[in-house]
Specification:
The chain is an alpha/beta fold. It folds into 2 domains: 3-136, 3-Layer(aba) Sandwich (Rossmann fold); 155-331, 3-Layer(aba) Sandwich (Rossmann fold), CATH 3.40.50.2000. Helices cover 34% and strands 15% of the residues. The protein has 14 helices and 12 strands. The chain has helices spanning 12-17, 19-27, 41-45, 65-75, 93-97, 128-133, 152-162, 186-200, 213-222, 236-244, 255-262, 292-295, 313-316, 320-331; strands at 3-7, 31-36, 50-55, 81-84, 102-106, 117-119, 170-173, 204-206, 227-229, 249-252, 267-270, 286-289. The strands form 2 sheets. It has a 6-stranded parallel β-sheet. Helix 7 (152-162) packs across helix 10, helix 8 (186-200) crosses helix 9 and helix 8 crosses helix 14. The radius of gyration is 20 Å and the shape is globular.
């Protein structure tokens, strides 16, 4: 059996989109250990084909040379192959220093020596699921969508801690680490929460990181009695379980959007500055709202963190009523 080390990407959405790659590797008999930064590791714990998850102690954006050298020393002799998913130079250092014989990845940032099997960098912004899956070799069939797993016990425990019943709540993920150009307005989330709570009589759980707590509190204040603010109050493992047990989800283009898609939850994803052609929610019950064709804005998609014009029309003009209708439609898909 091939012992494989998978060096994970640094964002939760990319981690979810790498699941079809891991499924391909596991089907052909490779034993998978995933090395991930702590805030990404929970996604891999929700993938049954992963045998072990190593939480790497490196700081985001830093080389951390002594730490990488020490980690590599501890991995020597453990693996036959390494798959390096990020394109950065530093992400390929540990497999090289650990002397893993076969090191696979994209050419990336000039990694001539660090990797000995390199795929050419694709042009533009390719669909990320296929981008990662190609590291396992040529494909004779379409790449399946990502899938995550959460046990009934994990869902029940997370729901109990949140004060809700499994299947008896909706989830909103209103933040986006990338920046405000991905964020549907708080007032729209609040209007949607008020309407959904009035019609469905279900609480709306607001998820996100501690950085997004103020945003979640703003939404809750504008929708009195409709929301439970859990942004910054759950672990990522708990957030994943809460999404798995939700009746429906609404989000921006974010990591939690991909988590909802991987559980097949009825969902609506609001896109603005980014493109669903690059990172769509791969879920037959997902409805994507992206107004590029309607608004005729030449700047869409700009892929910028903030709107260069300051109006954020690509997001602001997606109405709460339209999102609610889309969520109702998604819930009807078997």
């Amino acid at each position: 059996m091939t012992r494989a080390l998978v060096v994970a990407p640094q964002w939760i959405g990319d981690a979810v989109m790498s699941e079809p790659l891991l499924a391909r590797l596991a089907r052909r008999g490779e034993r998978l250990t995933v090395a991930a930064l702590p805030w990404v590791a929970p996604a891999y714990r929700a993938m049954p084909q992963v045998q072990e998850v190593l939480a790497w102690p490196f700081a985001h954006g830093r080389l951390d040379w002594p730490a990488r050298r020490d980690v590599a020393r501890g991995l020597r002799g453990r693996f036959d192959t390494a798959y390096v998913l990020p394109n950065s130079l530093k992400s390929a250092l540990v497999p090289f220093l650990a002397r893993i014989p076969r090191r696979v990845g994209y050419h990336g940032e000039g990694r001539f020596v660090l990797l000995n099997e390199r795929l050419p960098n694709p042009g533009g912004r390719p669909p990320m699921v296929a981008f990662y899956a190609a590291l396992a070799g040529p494909m004779d069939e379409p790449v399946p969508p990502p899938r995550l797993h959460a046990s009934d016990a994990a869902i029940a425990d997370a729901a109990r801690a949140a004060g809700v019943a499994p299947g008896g709540y909706l989830v909103f993920a209103p933040g986006a680490e990338y920046g405000p150009s991905k964020c549907w307005p708080a007032r729209h989330y609040a209007a949607l929460a008020r309407s959904l709570h009035a019609v469905r009589r279900l609480p709306v759980v607001l998820l996100g990181s501690a950085k997004e707590k103020a945003l979640a509190q703003e939404i809750a204040a504008l929708a009195p009695g409709a929301c439970r603010v859990l942004a910054g109050a759950t672990s990522l493992d708990q957030a994943i379980a809460l999404i798995a047990g939700a009746r429906g989800a609404v989000s921006n283009d974010s990591g939690l959007m991909h988590v909802a898609a991987a559980f097949g939850v009825p969902q609506v994803a609001v896109f603005g500055s980014t493109s669903p052609e690059h990172t769509p929610p791969l879920n037959r019950r997902a409805k994507v709202l992206w107004l590029k064709d309607e608004l005729k804005l030449d700047c869409m998609p700009c892929f910028e963190r903030t709107c260069r014009y300051g109006h954020y029309r690509c997001l602001a003009e997606v109405s709460p009523e339209r999102v609610e209708a889309a969520l109702d439609e998604a819930a009807q898909v078997a």
